[in-house]
């Protein structure tokens, strides 16, 4: 390309970024692995109080 190329006119998106470097990809896979490892970390017991005798009442 010529060294005096004009910039693209406004309204045209810039060219896509180059693919991520291997370091970035490994960081991403490490992050994904840590998220997946944490997915099964804790089990929460649901305390369903929708059938309690105070449902719908104004407490005061």
TrEMBL record:
Give residue ranges for domain WH2: 27-44
For this protein, the record's PROSITE patterns field holds: WH2 (PS51082)
Q: Which domain of life is it from?
A: Eukaryota
Q: What InterPro entries does this protein map onto?
A: WH2_dom
Q: In what ranges is there compositional bias, type Pro residues?
A: 1-21
Gene name, please? Answer: PAN1_1
Q: Mind telling me which Pfam families this protein's record contains? A: WH2
State the coiled-coil residue ranges: none
Which Gene Ontology molecular function entries are recorded, alphabetically?
actin binding
**Full protein name:** Actin organization and endocytosis protein
Q: What is the lineage of its organism?
A: Eukaryota, Fungi, Dikarya, Ascomycota, Pezizomycotina
Q: Could you tell me which residues belong to the region Disordered? A: 1-60
Question: Per the record, where are the segments of Polar residues compositional bias?
Answer: 47-60
